[in-house]
Amino acid sequence: MTDFLLLDGALLRAVDPVLLRATTFGHFTSLQVRNGHVDGLDLHFDRLDRSTREVFGEPLPAGRVRADLRAAIDEAGVGDLSLRVNVFATTRLHLLVRVGPPVPPATEAVHLRSYEHERSVPHLKHTGTFDLTYYARKAKREGYDDAVFHTASGEISEASIWNICFARGTELVFPSAPALPGIRQQVLQRGLPTYTTAPVPLTDLTTYDAAYLTNSIDPALPVASIDDTTYEPHPESAKVIAQAYVSQPPQPV
Fold first, then answer.
1. Fold of 4-100
2. Phi, psi of 65 (to 5 degrees)
3. If exposure means fewest CB atoms within 10 Å of the residue's CB, which of 86, 163, 193, 210 is most exposed?
4. Could you tell me the residue ranges of all domains in the chain?
């Protein structure tokens, strides 16, 4: 299938330059739809509502978002899709849904290069993503797969388009440095019997058994290395993560 756009639930056949300008200020969420279901759909609705209240000063009802998601699925004619819901405003609030084919999870553990960087307003999934792409491309030029960020004090926060967590045995540790609370990370945390949120200094990376990236595409992508610290496959923590996700079934759109 080819990508297409829906604006407020209707197929967008031409893009107005005014629309292009307006969409540069806003926020979004990205979803992978499988058989008409989405992991953590209620969390996506909550994210969009909270962010819209903060950025635009008004609520965004889940019913409106769900209607546009269903319109996207109906227009595509298939139940497996990649969707991105952008929220922006002109004289009123708009939803722009980008529809594309589903993206399969990665299959190879990744090598990360760390950079000191803290995103502006990190708790929002906003449209200011130049810095994320910049560092991801920089890491690839330097021979790595992607970038992971740390604060000025050396605490790991998040990766370019992922959250990151670490494992000591079967215990998962999520960095406490400011970062976007990703939907897949929240789904994982819902399913875990226990987990820890704590500072993860660069100097402590060797004390962990494993590290994993999570986002809407990759629920638990193993990290092969961060800079000079390497990680081997770790079945104990991988099993805990798999069990957590199984306990949180996807929700129908």
1. D-amino Acid Aminotransferase; Chain A, domain 1 (3.30.470)
2. -65, -45
3. 193
4. 4-100, 110-251
Entry pTM:
0.95
Question: Tokens at residue 74, please?
Answer: 């109906």
- Residue 94 forms beta bridges with which residues? 88
Give strand pairing partners of 149: 115
Beta bridge partners of 55: none
Question: DSSP alpha helices (H): ranges in 57-170?
Answer: 62-76, 130-141
Distance CA 148, CA 162 (A): 9
C-alpha 77/C-alpha 11 separation (Å) is 13
Q: What is the pLDDT of residues 165-213, one digit of tens each?
A: 999 999 999 999 999 999 999 999 999 999 999 999 999 999 999 999 9
Residues 110-251: name the CATH superfamily.
Answer: D-amino Acid Aminotransferase, subunit A, domain 2 (3.20.10.10)
Give every CB contact of residue 181 below 8 A, 6+ residues apart in sequence: 123, 163
Helices (H), 123-164: 130-141
First vs last C-alpha separation in the chain: 20
**DSSP 8-state class, residue 67:** H
DSSP assigned state of 171: E
